[in-house]
């Protein structure tokens, strides 16, 4: 089947075309993303996302090159998007850590530092149990997402979702506190 025929059948919603696409390209794409990430579970998740989006948006997608090139580029972009998202999360936490360290060494008022530290602990304790557990393993035990996923018998996507939830919560609550205190 040519790329043109395969694309037309995909656009028509023929599941057999999807099966052909999946069986022909899935493993190759996983291997490619694995070379970029070094994490096979992440590779599978990202490739599955790309292929799922292709199926969901099949009527609107225009492929001007080969399907292989299109999928290659889509997986590459999905990986870059993942890296950017992870960098944003770590940048926020690094700045949070830096602020705590900076205050530890530069503050003359130990009471103010202790108040902020207590506030952070209070916020962490307000997280849902699984979310808190993932956050502590990632940020205090310094475990990688794959290690956390293995420890808790959950997927890396679940770890990412829980971390995103925790960081959003902490950022939101910290911003509310700062805006309420006039800082």
Write the layout of secondary structure elements.
Blueprint: H1 3-11, H2 15-37, H3 40-56, H4 67-106, H5 110-126, H6 129-139, H7 145-152, H8 156-181
Helix pairs in contact: 1-2, 2-3, 2-4, 3-4, 6-8, 7-8
Features:
2 domains
Describe the structure.
The protein is mainly alpha-helical. It folds into two domains: 3-81, Rna Polymerase Sigma Factor, Chain: A (Orthogonal Bundle); 107-181, Orthogonal Bundle (Arc Repressor Mutant, subunit A), CATH 1.10.10.10. The protein has eight helices and no strands. It has helices spanning 3-11, 15-37, 40-56, 67-106, 110-126, 129-139, 145-152, 156-181. The longest helix is centred in the middle third of the chain and has 40 residues, at 67-106. The termini are far apart. Residues 100-108 have low confidence and may be disordered.
Mean pLDDT: 80
Alpha-beta content class:
mainly alpha
How many strand elements? 0
C-alpha end-to-end distance: 64 Å
Low-confidence stretches: 100-108
Share of residues in helices: over 70%
- Structural domains: how many: 2
The ordered H/E elements are: HHHHHHHH
Provide the CATH architecture of the largest domain.
Answer: Orthogonal Bundle
* Major beta-sheet overview: none
Report the radius of gyration as a whole number of Å. Answer: 22 Å
Tally of separate helices: 8
């Amino acid at each position: 089947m040519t790329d043109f025929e395969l694309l037309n059948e995909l656009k028509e919603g023929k599941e057999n075309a999807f099966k052909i696409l999946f069986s022909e390209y899935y493993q190759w794409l996983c291997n490619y993303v694995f070379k970029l990430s070094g994490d096979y579970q992440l590779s599978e998740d990202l490739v599955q996302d790309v292929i799922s989006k292709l199926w969901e948006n099949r009527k609107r997608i225009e492929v001007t090159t080969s399907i292989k090139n299109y999928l290659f580029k889509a997986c590459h972009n999905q990986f870059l998007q993942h890296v950017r998202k992870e960098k944003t999360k770590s940048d926020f936490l690094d700045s949070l850590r830096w602020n705590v360290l900076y205050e530890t060494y530069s503050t003359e008022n130990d009471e103010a530092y202790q108040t902020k530290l207590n506030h952070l602990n209070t916020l962490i304790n307000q997280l849902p149990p699984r979310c808190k557990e993932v956050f502590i393993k990632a940020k205090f035990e310094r475990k990688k997402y794959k290690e956390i996923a293995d420890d808790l018998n959950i997927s890396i996507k679940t770890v990412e979702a829980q971390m995103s939830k925790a960081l959003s919560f902490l950022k939101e609550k910290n911003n509310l506190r700062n805006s309420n205190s006039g800082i």
